């Protein structure tokens, strides 16, 4: 039996691949558990400074595998046990997470992609808030991500109609960072992830923290947070290296080490 999650270790970063292509990488319990383990292992590895998430086969992720749950399943319990911890785990990672969306990203699969830091999508990819088609509300952070990324009007329409959004439209709306040619998706995503793995890791972790906090903070609280983060980052080896490299007119060599 194939492993539901594949992990490739590269120098300073990892590729994590959803690997249930026959079901468009829809989630069952085994894939949830394997992905949680892969993310926890990456978080514990101090040499892992970036992560790429993608899907095997012709689609990124079709969300929950409806064939794996019965009509009497408590969906709230499924969300609490699996999907909410997954989104929280991805958002809490102290390293940048790049998502390469190949093909359809539907339901929780779409919102799994949106939970990542930077999303690239093949031009053939589609993002679908499919929940309404089976009488449900967007979950896995969908009702939080959508209005922040595309605005209230578009978020309501996408959630209420379940209409698909093509990759180029998603880029135009700000739902994702970039749409790329299908043949170039993997190479561009890998190049971006490899680049991020060479950047000041502590600064990137602080950027993630500040941007997430800014969704709830007022200006005064956010200014204070920026001050505090900058005070810590100013003591790191990467800050000293960055300044020295600037003065010497050379490329900086960052290690990601903490202060």
Description:
By secondary structure, the chain is of the alpha/beta class. The chain folds into 2 domains: 5-196, 2-enoyl-CoA Hydratase, Chain A, domain 1; 201-247, Lyase 2-enoyl-coa Hydratase, Chain  A, domain 2, CATH 1.10.12. 46% of the residues lie in helices and 15% in strands. It contains 10 helices and 9 strands. It has helices at 29-44, 75-92, 108-114, 142-150, 152-161, 167-173, 185-196, 201-214, 219-233, 237-247, and strands spanning 5-10, 13-18, 51-55, 97-101, 104-106, 118-122, 126-128, 165-166, 178-180. The strands form 2 sheets. A 6-stranded mixed beta sheet has the order 1-2-3-4-6-9, with helices on both faces. The chain has a 3-stranded mixed beta sheet with strand order 5-7-8. It is globular. The termini are far apart. The model has no long low-confidence stretch (mean pLDDT 96).
Element layout with pairings:
Blueprint: E1 5-10, E2 13-18, H1 29-44, E3 51-55, H2 75-92, E4 97-101, E5 104-106, H3 108-114, E6 118-122, E7 126-128, H4 142-150, H5 152-161, E8 165-166, H6 167-173, E9 178-180, H7 185-196, H8 201-214, H9 219-233, H10 237-247
Parallel strand pairs: 2-3, 3-4, 4-6, 5-7, 6-9
Antiparallel strand pairs: 1-2, 7-8
Helix pairs in contact: 1-2, 4-5, 8-9
């Amino acid at each position: 039996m194939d492993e539901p999650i594949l992990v490739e270790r590269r120098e300073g970063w990892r590729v994590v691949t959803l690997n249930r292509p026959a079901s468009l990488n829809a989630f069952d319990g085994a894939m949830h558990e394997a992905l949680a383990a892969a993310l926890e292992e990456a978080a514990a590895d101090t040499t892992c400074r970036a992560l790429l998430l993608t899907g095997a086969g012709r689609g990124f992720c079709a969300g929950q595998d409806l064939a794996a749950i019965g009509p009497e399943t408590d969906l709230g319990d499924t969300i609490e046990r699996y999907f909410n911890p997954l989104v929280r785990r991805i958002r809490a990672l102290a390293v940048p997470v790049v998502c390469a969306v190949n093909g359809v990203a539907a339901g929780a699969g779409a919102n799994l992609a949106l939970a990542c830091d930077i999303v690239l999508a093949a031009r053939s990819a589609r993002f679908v808030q499919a929940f309404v088609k089976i009488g449900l509300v967007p979950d896995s952070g969908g009702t939080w991500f959508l209005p922040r990324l595309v605005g209230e009007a578009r978020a309501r329409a996408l959630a209420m109609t379940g209409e698909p959004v093509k990759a180029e439209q998603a880029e135009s709306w700000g739902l994702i960072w970039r749409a790329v040619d299908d043949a170039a998706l993997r190479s561009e995503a890998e190049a971006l992830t490899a680049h991020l793995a060479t950047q000041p890791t502590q600064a990137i972790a602080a950027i993630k923290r500040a941007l997430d906090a800014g969704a709830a903070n007022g200006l005064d609280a956010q200014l204070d947070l920026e001050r505090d983060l900058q005070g810590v980052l100013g003591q790191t080896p990467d800050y000293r290296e960055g300044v020295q490299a600037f003065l010497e007119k050379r490329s900086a060599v960052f290690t990601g080490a903490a202060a």
